[in-house]
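Ticket reopened. Same input as before:
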Amino acid sequence: MTKASEKPATRIPLSGLLDVALEAMLGEFRTDLGDSAFQDIRPTHGCVFRFVRDDGMRLTKLAELAHITKQSAGEIVDDLASRGYVERVPDPADRRAKLICLTDRGREAQTFGFTLFAEVEKRWMERYGRERVEALRETLEDIASHEAPEAVPELHRPELADV
Amino acid sequence: MTKASEKPATRIPLSGLLDVALEAMLGEFRTDLGDSAFQDIRPTHGCVFRFVRDDGMRLTKLAELAHITKQSAGEIVDDLASRGYVERVPDPADRRAKLICLTDRGREAQTFGFTLFAEVEKRWMERYGRERVEALRETLEDIASHEAPEAVPELHRPELADV
DNA sequence: GAACCTTGTCAGGCACCCTGACCAGGCGAC
DNA sequence: GTCGCCTGGTCAGGGTGCCTGACAAGGTTC
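Engineering reply: fixed in the latest deploy. New output:
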């Protein structure tokens, strides 16, 4: 069908496709979250729920993982603290530092968020095919573990799933 | 290897993987662009080069495609115009409207940008396997054409490649 | 204990995008 | 025609999210 005189093959950039897919997925997530008991959680807050685990995390570490300055991270944590999702507890190992810890409500929100993401992914499997979405995930996991290993610690500490 | 007492399977959200991959890809692109003759092009400008074609585009249409307000689109276009990448020409079909058109330099930048994206994708093929990256693209094209068809007109007007 | 590094905060600023108000031009009803 | 309404674009003002710079308090090294 194509003729020799067609344009010099400017395919849509892969980054554009990644962007559309990401926005679509986040759109579904935010819609679901907006219908939930955690409506006051904004996109910026995501980095906290994404990286902070039950043993808490220092502000500097969070900023490093999220690729933002500690000042920015501080603002985000302040905001989440004022809403009752996190609290700063003194770090027993260093009197300068504080550990950012999820409150009970914060942990609820975190669990709810992860569950929501799993549901969205399940919907996508129904929509686009289980095999394809799983292949998508596997390739992206490989890419992510090479491009930003520190941002996906889950992929490098599988032993955390044991014991 | 895994025991029955492991955590309740909280895989890293697919959106997180998409985000890491997107940022990595844009990072390579921006690094390359920063080394080029088009250093003054900022991320925000991307929507113009992404959507405007040789026949120009109205501001309202651009805003709609990029999912921003026409005020925001106006600012971006003003900025690109001050740098000599675009110009507003009166729309012969409607005396209220102006067509945002790429200048010669703008077209150079657009072509350069698309070429750069193609090069980054080629590097990823070498890094992660041609088949896998191509499968990634195919799945993402399918997703994008369902989730935001208006943002990827290339996928719905294949006849543009002919004649 | 002096010099230096690290943790976190305060102050100020900029990029980017928004809402609201508005004008000029097009368009249909009468 | 011209009245009312819609549309394309701009102006004014504001807010979020991030930044740089400066700094105090505590840890670390010698």
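Residues 58-60, 70-71, 74, 91, 94, 96-98 of chain B lie near DNA strand D (CB under 10 Å from a C1'). Strands of chain B lie at 57-58, 86-90, 98-102. Please confirm and we'll close it.
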